[in-house]
Write a structure and sequence with these properties.
Order of helices and strands: HEEEHEEEHEHEHEHEEEHEEHE
Largest sheet: 7 strands, mixed
Structural class: alpha/beta
Strand content: 25-35%
Distance between the termini: 45 Å
Oligomer: single chain
Strand order of the largest sheet: 9-8-7-10-13-15-14
């Protein structure tokens, strides 16, 4: 798989991609390549601890002929609230990887997540292909990778909204890395649930809505539950959508059910178009294209 995807990634112009996707039950790990480094996630079962990552270290290094100090292991346990965004270290080993002509800063040491969700690579590409001369809203923006695609494609303005100043600052560094002046775009610190329910000031041609499954961040006024709240989130986005505009809604909620009859618009599932070939697990994410009536 490493040889196969390595050749494929080079042809695609990708420096970050998945090599191994828990393909065998007895090896419950994922292995991602970021440039000359590997990010290995070990999925916890029961009382799994950091010590349980040890058996995989020699196997990964030997199989992929990798330098041990360039392999980064993380233990992934069932998440709730903001755990996936909490800082784990202060090493600040940030470096750039290329993806379809763009560059993104990643950090494999300080957080559970790296700063770039690789499974949404094709969704980002789709947004980039449609963003020219558009006003774009990027909600739950994280490090603003969707915003980078839109801005580099010629969007008139991209408004990136997230609760965290840390990630909005990271997003601005991503913009500058790609030759975009962040001052020409919006970086808004806010609770998306509250912000969307407020008065409509702008009508967006393109909106990206990719909320976490669940969040009880101390910075939020309320708890976010995507299954419970998705109708309100989508309908509030549709209020802000310009005539003929498009909303892309996605979720990694494994048991998610879209309440389509309650939406103030039409939804078409496009998950098959947005899952890259290096991601082989079913249900990793689902994605819909939504338009208003």
């Amino acid at each position: 798989m490493a040889r196969h995807h390595g050749k494929w990634a080079r042809r695609q112009g990708l420096e970050a991609y998945r090599i191994y996707d828990t393909d065998l039950d007895e090896f419950p790990v994922t292995v991602d390549r970021y440039g000359d480094r590997l990010y290995v996630a070990v999925y916890a079962k029961g009382e799994t601890t950091e010590a349980d990552t040890e058996p995989y270290r020699g196997w990964i290094a030997g199989t992929l002929d990798a330098v041990p100090d360039r392999i980064h292991f993380k233990l992934r346990q069932r998440q709730s609230g903001t755990q996936q965004y909490e800082r784990l270290a202060e090493e600040e080993q940030e470096f750039a990887v290329r993806e379809y002509g763009r560059q993104f800063l990643v950090n494999l040491t300080d957080y559970l997540d790296t700063g770039l969700f690789l499974d949404h690579r094709l969704t980002r590409k789709l947004v980039g292909e449609q963003a020219a001369d558009k006003l774009v809203l990027n909600l739950f923006a994280y490090t603003c990778s969707f915003g980078v695609y839109a801005a580099t494609a010629g969007a008139t303005r991209v408004d990136n909204l997230d609760l965290s100043n840390t990630y909005l600052d990271w997003g601005q560094r991503n913009f500058r890395l790609n030759g975009i002046n962040p001052k020409q775009h919006g970086f808004i610190k806010g609770d998306a649930l509250q912000w969307l329910s407020g008065p409509v000031r702008d009508r967006y041609d393109l909106i990206v809505l990719d909320p976490p499954t669940f969040s009880n961040s101390k910075m939020m006024n309320d708890v976010l539950d995507t299954q419970r709240d998705h109708v309100a989130l989508i309908n509030d986005c549709l209020r802000r959508l310009a005539p003929g505009g498009t909303l892309y809604f996605s979720t990694n909620h494994r048991r998610f059910k879209l309440e389509e009859e309650a939406l103030a618009g039409t939804a078409r599932e496009i998950t098959g178009q947005t899952l890259p070939p290096d991601f082989r697990r079913r249900g990793l994410h689902r994605c819909w294209m939504v338009r208003g009536f």
